[in-house]
Amino acid sequence: MRLLLVEDDPMVGEAVREGLRQDGYAVDWVRDGRAAEAALAAHAFAAVLLDLGLPRKDGLEVLRSLRARRDALPVLVITARDTVSQRIEGLDAGADDYLVKPFDLDELSARVRALLRRASGRPAPVIEHGPLAIDPATREVKLRGAPVVLSAKEYALVAALTERPGIVLSRAQLEERLYGWGEEVASNAVEVHIHNLRRKLGDDTIRNVRGVGYTIPAGR
Amino acid sequence: MTSLRTRLVAALIGALLVAGALASWLSYRSAHAEVNALLDEELRQVALSVRDYAGLDLRRLDAARGDPEHRVMVQVWEIAGGVLYLSNARTPLPLAARPGYATFSHEGREWRTYTLFMGPRAVQTAQPTALRTGLAAQAALRILVPVLAVIPLLALLVWYIVGRAMAPLAGVAQTLARRSPTSLEPLAAQNLPDEVAPLVASLNDLLGRLGTAFGMQRRFAADAAHELRTPLTALGLQIQLLERAQDDAARAAAIARLKDGVKRATRLVQQLLTLARLEPDAAEQRFAPVALAAVARRAAADLAPLAEAKPVTIMVEADDAVQVNGADESLAILAVNLVDNAIRYALPGGRVAVRARREGGDALLEVADDGPGIAPEERDRVFDRFYRAAGTEAPGSGLGLAIARQIAELHGGRMEVGEGLDGRGVALRLRVPALAGP
After folding, report:
1. SS3 content of chain B, % helix, strand, coil (to 5)
2. Which of A142, B96, B286, B349 has the greatest number of C-beta atoms within 10 Å?
3. Nearest CA to CA, how far is B315 from chain A (Å)?
């Protein structure tokens, strides 16, 4: 899952990026409103964490123009603007959720998970797909009830593929979801992770669609 | 006696008593003079009539003795032989030496007499002077008694009128007493007497200034709380990252970040304190002549370690003759903030020039760099509280330049933004009135 973090404060930004990475997300971090718009235009993100008091372009402006383009991208506002009217303004401008600083890293993670869950149209917090059960909160994956230990990237790969089963994701799309900017990506990284996943979850879990990419088949 | 009402009543009654007493005295004086003239004339007339009508027939004189109104004592002498006639036998008076009026004491009483000499006989009329004093005193009392009688009524009236006149004051006091301590709206100034209106106007003026001061304090507190929230957020997140750290390397990195976070929060609090102490009404700053060159050199020396670490070259170009009337400590804070700011935003290998010079009647303290500069549209905002340039990596509270501006204003000057070194970067400049040079 690739997230866009828009936060002008270096320390808060770094800590949030670090925390979200530990949760298995790929995080791109920009520091101002215009950079956020450039990033949104260039890449597909699963969700945006948006600070409001931003240099160059206010976060609310970024949010409004995003919604004006009829982009339904989940947006979680993280801000120090804490009055009720400010929260209402933020939500009415198109935010899906509103988190006031200072916030708890675990709560931020939970809200991001809730946001992604709602965006995928899936009501249950645990993703069940065939013999697979994935709990985004604990990042625990069970195969027929037995826990499977996955690395952060392997987990992110399974989560990306089970998000919408049956959809084929190309290697480039998977790379984009797995890695933020500035992270080194080996050319065969995705293949290596897929290989490891198959070993852990069984060969037929992830199917290779030749020349297109990978999928977890729907309706199993 | 602090009540205006009591004081007014007492003062008015006192004044009335004094006026009454004065009027009585004057009336006593004039009545006395009139009575004197009148009774003197009576004495003379009686003496003349004794001579003319009675013809010194002593039997006819005796007939006049029965008159109760007869206040005049008549004596007739045979100059050679003694008293022939005495209208009041109890008090024989001696005969005056000369004719006409005379006043003398006899057996403890004072007498007024009129004497006529007619050959071998003499006629003397006499009256005790106490009679005259009594008549004059009666006249004075006729003035004084009504005045005394009117005093209680007047006191009540004054009490009531003063109360009525003071009602607007009481109204103002009541309005103020009923107010909540936070309410600083002006008092209604309509329909007030001329004497109360200036008081209310002054109160309103004070309330207005208080409101402004409170507003500034509130805004400052809100700004401060708002700005503290970000470093505290960072600290909270850094602690959570520390808790999550799985291995020593991650733990060390988290601790390093945490330390930076604490350092930053501490710095922000220090800056906030500095700013609070510089609030215009905070404390009277002691002004004295200050050489800007010394201030510039000290700031450059203080920050030399920071400059070396970057590395940035600091150059001081200071004119020792430039003096301003100012607070040394505040100017030092300003200079350090400017130099610190320049070093933070300078590129590694860059230069920072610290200058103290004169320009006309102004003294300038200028810090110029060859860093990335400030976009023209942002130049007005750099001195705002908590403003931080877009895309800055440089850590800072966003207060340093706001503090500089506050100090500049305390010195009756201002902060300016200009071109930096070699047409690049930025120069931040303090402009204050210079002291006349040597």
Report:
1. 55, 20, 25
2. B96
3. 30
CA-based nearest residue to A14, from B176, B399, B261: B261
| Optimal mutation site among A5, A11, A31, interface B, most CBs of chain B within 10 A | A11
% helix, strand, coil for chain A, step of 5: 40, 20, 40
Q: Which domains are seen in chain A, by residue range?
A: 2-119 (3.40.50.2300), 127-215 (1.10.10.10)
Q: How many residues does chain B have?
A: 438
CB contact under 8 A, A10 and B388: no
* Nearest CB to B241; choose among A8, A10, A15: A15
- Give the phi and the psi of residue A184 in degrees, each rounded to 5: -70, 130
Residue B62 pLDDT more than 60? no
ipTM, 2 decimals?
Answer: 0.72
CB contact under 8 A, A15 and B234: yes
pLDDT digit string, tens, across residues B295-353: 999 999 988 888 888 888 999 998 888 889 888 888 888 898 899 888 888 888 889 99
User: What value does the mean pLDDT take over residues B257-281?
Assistant: 80
Q: What domains can you pick out in chain B, each with its CATH number?
A: 4-137 (3.30.450), 197-277 (1.10.287.130), 288-433 (3.30.565.10)
pLDDT of residue B58: 61
Between chain A and chain B, the number of residue pairs with CB atoms below 8 A apart is 67
- Predicted pLDDT of residue B69: 45
Q: Token digits for B404?
A: 């500089």
Q: How far apart are CA B140 and CA B28, in angstroms?
A: 5
pLDDT digits (tens, 9 = 90+) for A52-94: 988 788 899 999 999 999 999 999 999 988 889 999 999 999 9
Per DSSP, the three-state class of B110 is strand
